[in-house]
């Protein structure tokens, strides 16, 4: 007689706290079954004085969003979506923050045994060239010290209802062939990495993470095309990023600094 497959443990505050260990005192984690957008919920809480380290996770988002107004598809079985509120020291420069967050996510995933992790400017984590995770950072307006909400979505499995065009470009942890970590374990690992990375960013800025980002840059030295809503496409060679996180693109007229914004990066 064959035994039944083990039931996957759902995301829970207690399990996340256990995974965080001594770091659990730095975070206040809330898990809900469903919400419109974890970023939207946490932005509202931030404006009402929620402390740094507040985490809002949803098993399902009905209006999750990414950069450039895109939707993020999520449900409890296929993805982990959460947002983290972080208050930086006064006068912290935010330039390059999304890249530093990407490095933290990459390192956490590598520590779980994944190989083939790379970073795509400005805010995507790739697995073997396909998008595994994304980051959406929003500044809380009118709040000092500098306060941000960091939204993160990571694919655990390929969603069955994912649109055809995304099926071709998306990756999932299950693609690695490794056992899937429990969602609570995954969240605890990511928060542990983010705590260290954000503390360091507040003290040293993106320059402290730049070399680690370049080591994982998916398109370093390759011909690329930059697409923008506000200008003509640019083509050139990717020469990395500077200490502010700006992309360095070598074009026919010289090296141009492309600041983090509404820009997409595609292989030429």
From TrEMBL:
Protein name per the record: Bifunctional ligase/repressor BirA
EC supergroup of this enzyme: ligase
Cellular component, GO annotation: cytoplasm
Alphabetized NCBIfam families for the sequence: birA_ligase
PROSITE patterns reported for this sequence: BPL_LPL_CATALYTIC
Keywords, comma-separated and alphabetical: ATP-binding, Ligase, Nucleotide-binding
GO molecular function: ATP binding; biotin--[biotin carboxyl-carrier protein] ligase activity
Keyword Nucleus (UniProt): no
Database matches in Pfam families: BPL_C, BPL_LplA_LipB
Gene3D superfamilies per UniProt: 2.30.30.100, Bira Bifunctional Protein, Domain 2
Native species: mine drainage metagenome
Keyword Ligase set for record: yes
Documented EC number(s): 6.3.4.15
Primary gene name: birA_5
Annotated BPL/LPL catalytic domain residues: 24-202
InterPro entries the UniProt entry points to: aa-tRNA-synth_II/BPL/LPL, Biotin_CoA_COase_ligase, BPL_C, BPL_LPL_catalytic, Transcriptional_repressor_C
């Amino acid at each position: 007689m064959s035994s039944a497959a083990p039931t996957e443990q759902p995301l829970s505050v207690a399990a996340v706290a256990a995974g965080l260990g001594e770091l659990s005192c730095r975070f206040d984690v809330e898990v809900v079954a469903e919400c419109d957008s974890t970023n939207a919920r946490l932005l509202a809480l931030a404006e009402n004085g929620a402390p740094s380290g507040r985490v809002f996770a949803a098993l399902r988002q009905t209006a999750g969003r990414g950069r450039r107004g895109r939707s993020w598809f999520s449900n409890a079985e296929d993805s982990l979506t959460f947002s983290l509120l972080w208050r930086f020291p006064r006068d912290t420069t935010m330039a390059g923050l999304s890249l530093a967050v990407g490095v933290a996510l990459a390192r956490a995933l590598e520590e779980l045994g994944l190989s083939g992790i790379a970073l795509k400017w400005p805010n995507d984590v790739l697995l073997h060239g396909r998008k595994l995770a994304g980051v959406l950072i929003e500044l809380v307006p009118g709040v000092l010290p500098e306060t941000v909400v960091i939204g993160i979505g990571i694919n655990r499995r390929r969603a069955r209802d994912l649109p055809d065009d995304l099926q071709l470009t998306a990756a999932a942890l299950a693609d690695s062939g490794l056992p899937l970590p429990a969602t609570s374990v995954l969240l605890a690992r990511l928060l542990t990495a983010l705590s260290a990375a954000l503390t360091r960013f507040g003290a040293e800025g993106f320059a402290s993470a730049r070399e680690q980002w370049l080591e994982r840059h998916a398109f370093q030295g390759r011909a690329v095309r930059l697409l923008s809503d506000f200008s003509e496409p640019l083509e050139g060679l990717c020469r990395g990023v500077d200490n502010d996180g700006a992309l360095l693109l070598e074009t026919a007229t010289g090296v141009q600094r492309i600041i983090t914004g509404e820009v997409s990066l595609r292989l030429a």
